[in-house]
Task: structure prediction
Amino acid sequence: MTDGPLIFDRALVRARRRRAALLGPAVFLLDRVADDLAERLGAVLRRFELAADIGTPGDAVRAALARLGSVGSIVTVDAVPEARGPGAGTIPNLVVADEETLPFRDASLDLAVSALALQFVNDLPGALVQIRRALKPDGLFLAALVGGETLTELRQAFAAAESDVEGGASPRVAPFADVRVIGNLLQRAGFALPVADSDRYTLRYESPFALMTELRRMGATNALVARRRTPLRRTTLLRMAKIYRERFADADGRVRATFDIVWLSGWAPHPNQQQPLKPGSAHSRLADALGSREISAGEKAGR
Result:
């Protein structure tokens, strides 16, 4: 349990996943991320004897790892195994645990992966530290989470509608971290060779209501602790849909929705890994390579 601020209602996050399973989960984005994760991992020329899939909804990532051939045993960590359907009890090495409190011993894993789960963790720095400690020296962490400007269209439309109808806005779309911020968290957690980058997907829907239905089937609707507890007014909802269409519809009438997927990778430190050069150890000057004049720290550049 985190001692920091509670942004997400974790019990509600789990309830949203259960509801998504009953509705028939929408897994198109997760399938895409699983394929990309397998492609990125396939570029690493080594074998991982013991891997953990942390919090990923569904079986797409587990199946992608199994197809690679470079991954041995896979431990699946899921706080809501019943959302996986009636076959959840037959999944080998299934551990019921929350992403905020991982059950692994220090230096026990060769690989840790996660897809579209860690964005709903209250203490992401703490979760990253737990993952790094669970990795063996030179073990790899690879994850994808929702971040950046995801659902910016929906956020803007709701804020404008509530301001027009109710005189003020309430939080309805989660605040997603920027790729640079998340990349810095990797360094703070003690990962070596940290890398963070992002992919943007612009999806199109028949209407804002179709987007909201899809979010329910993804288990990704509002689970903020600070959410408004009163039901959404019909007038506000209709105003939101009108604003959304006015601002974010294409010529054919379909509306756009942005999804930014932030990718993280880092290694548990090991003495044989590449190390940054010590300051002053270079054998040539950058100014020589650029064909320019070197200016000392105390000298002002000429105009």
Summary: The domain at 10-154+175-231+259-269 is CATH 3.40.50.150 (Rossmann fold).
